[in-house]
Amino acid sequence: MTAPATGKAFAILFRNLCRWNVSSFFTIQWNWPASTIKPLFIALERKSNVVNRKRDVPLDLVLISLHFNGEMEPREVETSIFKGKLFFAEAGDVVYSKIDVRNGAIGVVPQSMPRVAVSSEYPVYGIRSNVALPQYVKLLFRTRAFRRQINSLISGSSGRKRVQPTDLEQIKAPLPDISVQRLIVDYWQEAQRSMDTARAGLSEPVHSLNSRLTEIYRSTCTRDVIHSRFFVLDFKDFTTWDAKSGRAASFRLACPSFRPIGEFIKEATDLVRPAAEPDKDWPVYGVNNKVGVFLNSLQKGVTFNTPYKRIRKDWFFHNPTRCNIGSLGIVPDVPEDAITSPEYQVWRLKTNIQEPMLPGYVACLIQTPFFLDLVQFNRVGAVKQRMYTENLMQIRLPYLPVTEQQRYADAHEKALVTLTAANKRLDAAREEVEAMILGTKKVSEP
Q1: What is the tens place of the pLDDT at every residue in 267-312?
Q2: Calpha distance 65→73 (Å, rounded)
């Protein structure tokens, strides 16, 4: 029995408690017919396919990183060196982190990753095709209401709180007819297609700049040092004894007019301690090779264990382990308290120098295949190669006059305006989709 709530207070008998915290009393108010609201185990089927280390593990099997926005990407860690037990997950399967699901780490394995491996901290579920569409389930997981329901299920001690599979499976959610789910998914995908078109426009100045850099490189070098299968170098020209640094040295000698990017950038290491404000929602930004810099999550200060790095508009940062595939980006307009992981390398352009580099130009530059080829042999490390800011500063590039840089910067800015407008439409569509899933907006034929 529960006493009527007055203000912020309520009363409940001890025997009716499921767990000892206030948030556990939250229940989503779905606006669907009762027959549509069903526990998730109706749609999800637990899978526990163990990776047998004694047999040949598929060469293309990769571990995944599951981000707080539900997106997944391969980790640069070989499955053979992972110590714990691993489990298979396939495209279309649901995967979530027991610890970080409260921050949004729950999603569906994309079709671009047919088979992946996860640890025991990541439960895996197949989706029953006659009950739910994977795309619909993914949208359901991203609703604010579902996230709040997840947070009501947390159990365990401070710092290691988990959401157990049995609790997740009992969450009740709308599972309408497949045809209705399809209408919701189609509405969202149409909005995404507009976003993809705008994003493609952003790549046009990148392709143009890449052609220009390649042209300068070919006119400067008598041979292709970047892609050649061998190179010849005097021992005195090696900085360290490995093939990568040897190729970097060979490139430097072949292109003496190219200048190190360290002449134009400097590291930014402003640290912030979010834990000092435990109740504050901190905007945490990430970076990937699809959208560049993006808002990853809003996290309470109490969840942080270490200082994070401050970021500002027109600064840059990159993932040191994935920069070779394009995980670098320019910081857009962000709040004053915007931060990013201490693992990311944050840097900014020097000002008040005679020959500067423009932010919009550099935003194009770091996405060109020409630049990414140079990143490949300016990384350090053996098993897990990284590029720190000090390594980035050693990359040599042809310097373009500011007037020429401005043309690329202007084209980038124009495409960015179009992308921003498309992003606002996508945000509006996201709200519409959430309303459809909650049942507060009617799902209708297009």
Answers
A1: 999 999 999 999 999 999 999 988 899 998 899 999 999 999 999 9
A2: 5
110 to 2, 72, 116, 204, 313: CA distances (angstroms) = 43, 8, 10, 26, 31
Total-model pTM: 0.72
DSSP letter string, 239-289: SSSSHHHHHHHHHHHH-TT-EEGGGTEEE---EE-GGGSTTSEEEEEEEET
d(CA 86, CA 63): 9
Chain Cα centroid distance, residue 444:
32
Buried/exposed 74-100: b ≥16 CB within 10 Å, e otherwise: ebbeebeeeeeebbbbeebbbbbbbbb
How far, in Å, CA of 197 to CA of 419, rounded?
Answer: 9
What CA–CA distance (Å, rounded) separates 385 from 391? 11
d(CA 39, CA 37) in angstroms, rounded, equals 7
Q: In terms of Cα–Cα distance, which of 443, 441, 439, 440 is closest to 172? A: 439
Letter string b/e over residues 243-279, b meaning 16 or more CB atoms within 10 A of that residue's CB: eebbbbbbbbebbeebeebbebbeebeeebebbeeee
Reported for 221-226, long-range contacts at CB under 8 A and 24+ positions apart, including other chains, are: 221/254, 221/255, 222/254, 223/254, 225/250, 225/251, 225/254, 225/255, 226/251, 226/373, 226/374
Distances (CA, A) of 271 to 85, 297, 308, 349: 36, 18, 6, 18
Residue 386 three-state SS: strand
Grouping H, G, I as helix, E, B as strand and the rest as coil, residue 147 is helix
Which residues are 317's β-sheet partners? Answer: 329, 346
- C-alpha span between 425 and 167 (Å, rounded): 35
- Alpha-carbon torsion angle 236, 241, 244, 247, nearest 10: 20
Beta-bridged to residue 319, according to DSSP, are: none
H/E run at residue 295 = strand 292-300
Among 71, 97, 89, 160, smallest CA distance to 125 is for: 89
> Angle, nearest 10°, between helix axes 134-141 and 402-438?
100
Domains in the chain (CATH in brackets) are 2-176 (3.90.220.20)
pLDDT at 381: 80
- pLDDT for position 155: 58
Q: Is the pLDDT of residue 92 over 80?
A: yes
Please enumerate in sequence order all residues whose Cβ is within 8 A of that of 281, keeping only pairs 6 or more positions apart, or say none. Answer: 298, 299, 300
Q: Are 287 and 70 in contact (CB under 8 A)?
A: no
CB 105, CB 97: distance < 8 Å: yes
